[in-house]
Design brief:
44% of the residues lie in helices and 21% in strands. It has 15 helices and 17 strands. The protein is of the alpha/beta class. The chain is globular and about 65 Å long. Helix 1 packs across helix 14 and helix 10 runs parallel beside helix 11. The chain folds into two domains: 234 residues, Rossmann fold (3-Layer(aba) Sandwich); 114 residues, HprK N-terminal domain-like (Udp-n-acetylmuramoylalanyl-d-glutamate--2,6- Diaminopimelate Ligase, Chain: A, domain 1). The strands form five sheets. Strands 2-7-1-8-9-10 form a six-stranded parallel sheet, sandwiched between helices. The protein has a five-stranded mixed sheet with strand order 12-17-16-15-14, sandwiched between helices.
């Protein structure tokens, strides 16, 4: 049996889709594949229990019989962290629970894909970071990294140093077209010269980018007040309407694939946002319903209008969290990730330890 731990330099880079895509690919190569996410961090409450959604998707996608408490032995919620700090959770017991679950799940497999946390610091309070976990379960590590500027190389090198000999290599994910040449010509040769293997560069893909407006509305508990406007558009960023309408319009026109956040009583800013082609949705705060003139224009433009009760600052924080972590991971998104990996990553070399 081989174990591959998939971790990342930060949250929201696409680690889950890559982990599940690799697991599905290995399964279709006639391997007995298992999966677990030891510390659940992408939490959602349902039927009275707080669980990470990723193991739920993995169980369905990979046809796993394991129970949720085995796939996700630790619910790494703020409440859990507080209990650790108050001495009510024993790190040694938690580590044993994780290792026991891993061994149970791995017993009938020849490849275990283990999804790590949102970064190499997560789990420090229980002495079970992804570095610790890799040692505990004797796993090789795939590091998923983003790349926006040359300074990001520092993060990759720092992570590689922490992981040491456990590091199998790096995959750069969601790479913009403008960055591919620099990565190919400068960054990858530099990293490999420093002993850090790079398996490939996955380009940014529109189908996987951002969060559907429908998911954003669900995450925020927002009311949709714009009639039949579609919620299928995806938003990747937000812009805040906190100035006069003339200045705001210039700001809105410089953005794309954005949700505009403003007070529900700022009809002038709302109207300006509806003139900007890069604004995909309006998110209005404070519980103020916009005037019919704004709603009518939004219907004409096909721009959804969402309404929340919270104030603008709170709403911005919540939206930032949703956009950073992402919400939609489905069988289709995993299949698309698998297609992208096949086109741009040396999957044979990456999965070769399991052969």
């Amino acid at each position: 049996m081989n174990a591959l731990l998939v971790t990342s330099t930060d949250a929201g880079i696409g680690k889950t889709a890559i982990a599940l895509a690799l697991a599905a690919e290995a399964r279709d190569r006639d391997r007995e594949v298992g999966y677990m996410k030891p510390t659940g961090t992408r939490l959602r409450s349902a039927t009275g229990k707080t669980r990470d959604e990723d193991p739920m998707l993995a169980r369905e996608l990979l046809d796993l019989d394991a129970e949720m408490h085995e796939l996700e032995p630790v619910v790494y919620s703020p409440t859990f962290v507080r209990e650790v700090m108050r001495g009510r959770e024993d790190p040694g017991e938690v580590r044993s629970r994780v290792v026991d679950s891993f061994e149970t799940l791995a017993a009938e497999t020849d490849l275990m894909v283990v999804e790590g946390s949102d970064g190499l610091a997560t789990g420090s309070v229980i002495d079970l970071t992804d570095v610790d976990l890799a040692e505990a379960i004797d796993a090789g590590v795939l590091l998923v990294a983003g790349y926006d500027e040359v300074g990001d190389v520092d993060e990759v090198l720092a992570a590689a140093e922490q992981l040491g000999e456990r590091l199998a290599g790096v995959v750069f994910n969601r790479v913009a077209d403008a960055a591919i040449d620099e990565l190919t010509e400068d960054v990858v040769p530099f990293l490999e010269g420093r002993g850090v293997p790079v398996f490939g560069l996955v380009p940014r893909d529109e189908e996987l980018a951002g969060v559907p407006v429908a998911d954003l509305a669900e995450s925020l508990g927002a009311e949709v007040v714009s009639g039949d406007a579609t919620l299928d558009a995806r938003v990747e960023r937000f812009t805040v309407g906190a100035m006069g309408s003339d200045s705001a319009l210039g700001q809105f026109r410089r953005t794309r694939n954005a949700v505009m956040i403003a007070g529900g009583d700022r009809a002038d800013v709302q109207a300006a946002a509806l003139e900007a082609p890069g604004v995909e949705a309006l998110l209005l705060t404070g519980g103020f319903r916009p005037p019919e003139s704004v709603l009518g224009r939004a219907r004409d433009e096909g721009v959804p209008v969402l309404l929340v009760q919270s104030d603008t600052r709170t709403t911005v924080d919540r939206v930032e969290g949703v956009l950073h972590s992402g919400r939609t991971r489905t069988e289709r998104t995993v299949e698309r990730a698998r297609e992208l990996l096949a086109e741009s990553v040396d999957v044979d070399r990456l999965l070769s330890p399991a052969e």
